[in-house]
Amino acid sequence: MELHLNRVDYMQVGVTSQKTMRLLPALGRKATQKVAVADQDGVVTCFGMKKGEPVPVFKTLPGQKVSRLDLGGALGTPQEKIFVCSGSEVRGFTKKGKQFLTFDANLTESITAMRVSGADLFLCASYIYNHYCDCKDQDYFLSGDKINDITCVTSPHLARTTPVLACQDRLLRVLQGSDLLYDVEVPGPPSVLQLYNKDGGEDVLYGTADGKIGLLKMGESSGLSQWEIDNDKKKGGVLCIDTYDIIGDGVSDLLIGRDDGGVEVYGFDGSGEPALRFEHVLSESVTSIQGGCVGKESYDEVITATYTGWVTGLTTEPQKAEVGPGDELHMSKETQTKVAALRLELDQLQSKVLQGRERYQQTSQSSTAVSAVPVFSINDKFALCQDDASYSLTLEVQTAIDNLLLQSDVPIDLLDVDKNSAVVSFSECDSEPNGNFLLATYRCQANTTRLELKVRSIEGQYGTLQAYVTPRLQPKTCQLRQYPIKPLSLHQRTHSLQQERPMSRLSLVGQFSLAEIHSWVGFCLPEVPEKTPAGDTVTLHFHNTFLGTQLEATYCKGEGHFRSDNISTISILSDVLSKEATQRKINLNVSYDINDESVNHTLRMIHPKLEYQLMLAKKVQLIDALKELQVHEGNADFLIPEYRSILDEAQHLMDEYKKQPAHLERLYGMITDLFIDKFKFKGQNVKTKVSSLLEILDNYDLNSLLDFFSEA
Amino acid sequence: MLVPIFTLKLNHKINPRMVTVGKFDGIHPCLTAATQAGKVFIHNPHARGQRPVAHRLSQSTQDSDISLLNINQAVSCLTAGSLGLNTTGDTLLVGSQTNLLAYDVHDNADVFYREVTDGANAIVLGKLGDIQSPLAIIGGNCALQGFDYEGKDLFWTVTGDNVRSLVLCDFTGDGKNELLVGSEDFDIRVFKEDELVSEMAENETVTSLCHMHGSRFGYALANGTVGVYDRTSRYWRIKSKNHAMSIHAFDLNGDGVVELITGWSNGKIDARSDRTGDVIFKDNFSSSVAGVVEGDYRMDGQVQLICTSTEGEVRGYLPASKELKGNLMESSVEQDLVRELSQRRQNLLLELRNYEENAKGVTETDSEVGVIPANTQLQTALSVRSTTEAQKAHVELSISTPNETIIRSVLIFAEGIFEGESHVVHPSAQKLSGCVRVPIVPPKDIPVDLHIKAFVGGKNSTQFHVFEITRQLPRFSMYVMAVDPLVATPTGRVTFSINDRSQRVVMWLNQNFLLPEGTNSPDVTFTSLRGGGLLSISMASSGQITLSTNDIDLAGDLIQSLASFLAIEDLSAEVDFPDYFKELRTTLTEVDEFHCVHQKLTAAIADHSNYIRNMLVQAEDARLMGDMITMKKRYRELYDLNRDLVNEYKIRSNNHNALLARLKCVNQAIQRAGRLRVGKPKNQVISACRDAIKSNNVNTLFKIMKAGAASS
Question: Is the CB of residue A370 less than 8 Å away from at least one CB of chain B?
């Protein structure tokens, strides 16, 4: 079934956070719903649409940044009370805008997620979960990693409303009272949770920061995965999910909003598997999404709120085809008045701005005045992509970006991203002794509010990537954002480990506290919680997204053990950790237990990848020549089957080859590192033999490589 | 929304920029393009199966609509059109690095086949100036040549560098066509027959030119810039990170004015308004665009825009009908207008907020916000620095703040002097100060606008004020007014007379050089920071100016710059560059030698091919007779011969390349001799030199170069 939705913009408010827009339930006979949206200026706006014009119901005064908005009300009645949280405070408004509740949760940190259900209020602030009933403290839980979102399931199996926390360490934690009931691992860091059935139930939808979506059935003692949608097309991370029957087939459809501006509708086929039915791209992050009816009665629509505060509908109402005589553009009356009003407002603003500018200019004459431009907000994300083992950096500003300066003090590669239309220019950096390894400017095209770029790092080389963002806003300012490139940058948290692999071990013993070693580990590896976890001993598991090798870190006060099947990982860890300890003047006793089998094991793990890449490179090299032969001879019948198959698959091979630029070089680099590290632990320097290693790699054969490693 | 009216998959690769449409039988338009393996294909869907197969033409076995034309050389350019009245249809012209072929596809016969030593990088067909018959004009290495239908070259002139693009258009508005030439030295030159009437300096190789209407034309550069000129003034330009493969003028929205259609390397096609450069339509191919042409391909009286991709995909678009009202894209105009106005409002509101917050004054002295004194103003200074031990000679741009604020980073956007479009200085955190010195080494003598962006703030700020300043770097900035006594006085000199006061010359000096304060004499001596040679300028009271330098290019630049400053229309000069002329004399002898070798080698090749024929026959005879020993022997001999041939080919190609390089030198010499004069004397010198070369009269050539054409 084909779904056509047309975009209608309703209103613009300030910059919005995730999940800060909801539709109030329809009132009585009226079919259109009102929209409640809260922004980072602290303003809660509630409006309805009348003849294409937004009519505000109420608007609060600016205040602290609102991080979440939820609807609630006594159970069994329409959920039409608006709850917003900002800082550590929760406020409640009636649908008319009367404030009936102010509740200070007295948390040290700002609230990041909130859920209201009847008299129950569930709040999360980074690591802390709190449950209040009638504003009285009930339960408390300290999570192992940052909590991104919360929802509550009800089911006959479970005694009462059960909260589910989405935690950054790829776990959904299900609580019972103040205790952990069980946890479920999901394929990426979950960023949003939503009940499949809005009235309750035990089916929970989750979306991850790397763009995956899944449905879990929360049972008594474990969660059961129903289905999962992978992110093959490398779409943005999921920010919001809703369910609504927009297709009109009686089954609730899935509405997804992503941080690259993607809006998707998934319908369900007979077998209950989700299938993509509609896709639309807004130019900025979609922070909230909900299905309902706002613009016109009896036309369902998908309402979205975006980062810069646009409330936009994708409606089933067909767009009016304006037909009229003459060449002049015909605008509907409503639009005309709208445009006229906007123009008037613009003129007034313009004169105000001119005054402001003048006054600002005058201050430059005075010798005592200072110029301090308020900080503009940047929505940024620096995340490791599992598929191609590279980092993607996205930056989003509420106005158009003028230019971006990237600086790095570690060697990294900037990769081209198709979506990015900015003109990149690399500046030479070796001429100055300033420790710059990358200096690049991006000059953006007009109206670019969102920039996406890719960065490839090398494990073992660490430092900081700095981005200076300058928006097109007077007086011109730029903001600096820093992103650490960690020594083991290609590692990712996981919760399972294959025990049968041959592992090498690095052990540290010394006078350090748990907090100290935890911060060192956090320095070396991504996705380590900032806060020192509770308990005496911490165990974290990682896997290398590029090679598939694994790492287990177990540490406690005065002792740390790291086990990995890749000795390069061990080598990097030992270098960085001893350096860190020396800096803090802590005496470390470092010991190794190197398993020689692990080197061969790693080489065997690399083997299929390397062989595939070599074959691919070889085939791609042949394509052009074969095509030429084909043209020359008129057909390809005279070729051997192998070559004919290359011709048949040419397009596919080219795509595959383009997808992984420099993959082979990276593999070569890692094998070389492995070679050097193996003998480093034996106290030998084999740098002179690297050239013969590269020779062997050029005529690759697994056995000769294994022999070379064992002989040298 | 405009959609293609036809799509074809031709299964043949298409070489970029080598696509044309020709009516070879006078009726049916055929898409003609160069493909791999030195072939040209002709797509003729109109007359299936009626084509005779003979001579160069052969039917493709893959597709009956396609005929292949064997050129047996890498095609470098092609076009189709009418050369004269004596043929039924259009003539196909195919240029390669050594030859130009005019071919009558309908009669299946060569019209002419000419050797062109300067190669053919670009070709255009049409009437030029007062020349009666239409010409096929090819642009090669520094040379332009025009042939009529008999293959007689009626037009020959030289230009500054290798020609990359050509177009005929009535630039001066006199009803006759001028020739526009885009070349690798970043210039667009306009020739009225062989007289150079205008020169426009761009900042990259000019890869494409196309005539829009009247005196307006579009251009594309190798760095991704496209734009539109009207005569010598640029209307607009845009720059993309992709490269423009092909540009074409076509009225896509049906408003009676052509748009600039650009095909990009990433497969994008866009149509831009000729006045503003706004995109009015875009579409995407899966691979790079190869060429954009037009033709009535459906034979229904309507001309379509035909876009082709390198993978052989062809799409045709009809101009938009009236109903679309020029709105070719999916979005609705109303919505866009409202959105744009709202965006502007939002921007103004943000700016206003900036001023308001600033006016409130800063109570907190938070250094992170980057508070700076309101009266901070940046000082910039340009100065010339000679070579020191630490650094090469450069122009130094120093930027400093008057107070304790620091400059975190400096971005300079400028065209043509950096590798990319920008240069970044980012001192390390320890070296931050209020003063930044940027060394600049402009590679060419061109005036450049430096757009400087400096990030000013405190040492620990994360937000900085951006100061934007534009400074002009004078044209001859790499010359310092100092005389090294060790350097010999230059032998080359140019003498010419002007009727202007010496003060005007001093003004010119001040504008174009970085002079110390208070220079008011026109007699100055500089040392070039690039080569270290001297440049001295002296002016006698009679108005006679003598330039002494060994650099003939520099002398040419100086004369052109001075002439345009003083608005001199005609200027002749006495010239002597003994060193350069000596070099040129050697080059001319070398050209003769290489020509000789070339002829010898060609003869040798003919001999060898005879041998091969014989040997092959003998070998096959032996095989049929069953005499395997003789056969083996013959084949072995054949193999040896083949190896010899390959070697000979290498020698030949080396010889050819060397010859090309020498010829380029000769062409450049003529161009340089021309540049030492202005206006009429310039053209006289060029045409006289050309005649001298044609008649192989070396002594006359030098006489003309020295004294100008009038004396001969």
Answer: yes
ipTM of the complex: 0.81
Q: What angle do CA A428, A389, A691 make, to 5 degrees?
A: 65
B365 interaction partners in chain A (CB closer than 8 Å): none
pTM: 0.83
Task: Give pLDDT tens digits for B630-652.
Answer: 888 888 888 998 888 888 889 88
Q: Do B355 and A332 touch (CB under 8 A)?
A: no
Residue A351: C-alpha distances to residues A344, A355, B351, B406, B563 (Å) = 11, 6, 12, 34, 47
Separation CA A593–CA A520 (nearest Å): 21
Give the tokens for residue A550. Answer: 């694994």
Closest CA to A166 of A154, A183, A178: A183
Q: Does A217 touch chain B (CB under 8 A)?
A: no
Helix (H) or strand (E) holding B545: strand B544-548
**Residue from B286, B360, B424 whose CB has the most chain A CBs within 10 Å, to mutate:** B424
One-letter amino acid of B682: K
Bridge partner residues of A8 (DSSP): A313
User: For residue range A484-505, what is the model confidence (pLDDT) as tens digits?
Assistant: 999 999 998 888 888 888 888 8
Cross-strand pairs, A263: A257, A280
- Quick check: A65 and A40 in contact, CB under 8 A? yes
- Residue whose C-alpha is closest to residue A191's, from A268, A250, A257: A257
Residues of chain A numbered 570-609 and touching chain B (CB < 8 Å): none
- Please enumerate in sequence order all residues whose Cβ is within 8 A of that of B600, keeping only pairs 6 or more positions apart, or say none: none
Q: Which of A188, A131, A122, A177 is nearest to A149 (CA)?
A: A122
| Residue B367 Cα distances to B417, B430, B455, B461, angstroms | 36, 17, 15, 6
Residue A286, C-beta contacts closer than 8 angstroms, at least 6 positions apart = A239, A240, A257, A258, A259, A261, A262, A263, A304, A305, A306
Give how far Cα B487 sits from Cα of B390, B484, B534, B638, Å: 22, 6, 7, 61
Residues in chain A: 712
Taking CB atoms and an 8 Å limit, are B337 and A373 in contact across chains? Answer: no
